[in-house]
Design brief:
258 residues, alpha/beta, Metallo-beta-lactamase, Chain A, seven-stranded mixed β-sheet, binds zinc ion
Amino acid sequence: MLKVCPLGSGSKGNCVYLQSDKAKILIDAGLSFAEIKRRLSDIDVRLYELDGVIITHEHNDHITGLSGFRGSGIPIFVHTFAAPIIGGKFQGLELKKISEQAFDFADLSITPFKIPHDAVYPLGYRISSKNKTLSVATDVGFAADNIIEAMKDSDCIVVEANHDESLLINGGYPKRLKERILGGRGHLSNASSAELLSKIITRRTSNLLLAHLSEENNLPELAFETVAKKLAENGFYERGDFKIGVLKQNERGSFFDV
Ligand SMILES: [Zn+2]
Ligand SMILES: [Zn+2]
C-alpha cells in the first residue's frame, strides 16, 4: 500500500505526505509548521506519528516548516552538502545525511537522483513500496537524462509545471529573476514539463500531479491543458488512461492510493 496526499505546492511552499504500510513521511516541509500540522490533522495524521522527512533542497519553500521539528527526534534526510546549511538554520534537527545512493527506510525503497537547480545539491526521489512507485521532482532547471531514467514508469508522478513561458516573459518580474527561472538551473515551464512527462509516462502511470505552479506566471488551466494536449499527441489520454491533478498552494490535494 502506498498512499499520497499533497499538502500544498507552489512557489511559496511545498510539502507532500506519503504513507506505506510501515512508514509515514513527508517529502519537503516547505509550508509553515502550523500549516503542516493543520493539513496533516485534516487527514487524521498527528505530527508525532511521522517517521521521517526527506528534503529535496535547502530553499525556504522546501524547508521552512522544519523549524517545528527541532528536538522532535524525527529523522530529516538531506543531501550531505545541504546538511550544514539546513543544520545551521535550524539547530536541533535529527539530520540524516544521504547521497545519490538508494536506501531503504522501513518498507520504502528510496532512490535519490540529482536535479539541475540553483541549490547546493538538489534531489528528486523515486520511492517504492511493494509494487507501487511514486516519483517526485520539483525545481527542475531542465529535464536531464538521469531524471528521465529515474522517473520513468512510475504509478504516480509529481512534477513541476512552474510557469507559462509567455506569461513569464511578458510579466512584471525583474529581468534577472526571469533569466534565473528560465535558465538551466531554474524551473520547468508547462511546455518543458509536458515534454518531460511524455518521456516518462507509461501504461502503468495512473496519476500525474503538476506541482510548484507560480501564482504570478501560470494558471492551473494552462498547465493542465499544455500537459494533457502533449500527452494526447503521444497516445495517452487524460481520464481514459490516467488523471492529471494540479496542486494548489493554499489547500491540500486529495488523499489517494498510488
Ligand atoms: Zn528551489
Ligand atoms: Zn521551490
